[in-house]
Amino acid sequence: MSTVVVTTKQYVEEREGAYRIVGKRVSLDSIVYAFLSGQSPESIAQSFPVLTLEDVYGAIAFYLANRATIDTYLAEGEQLFEQLRQQARANNSLLYQKLYSA
């Protein structure tokens, strides 16, 4: 009987407060939002040529295994985005008036 070595592989890492695909600049957010909107892993992989199908499945598996943590992380990111959007509007009110009046 031959011996087969099985290794585990990490697909997602946390760097500087953000989750990314290991060795890539693609955020986990991008994959999760595509997955939650109904895109297939194959479609997601086509949208991110730097990722392999294995990377996408690994990221989805990571999300599903850590769903509560990642959902909280995504919600915090959405709140921060909304705060920054409101701040930009307050700081540049004339610009936004021109944009919406056109």
TrEMBL record:
Please give the Pfam families that the UniProt record associates with this protein.
Answer: DUF433
InterPro entries per the UniProt record, alphabetical? DUF433, Homeodomain-like_sf, WH-like_DNA-bd_sf
Question: Organism's domain of life?
Answer: Bacteria
Q: What is this protein called?
A: DUF433 domain-containing protein
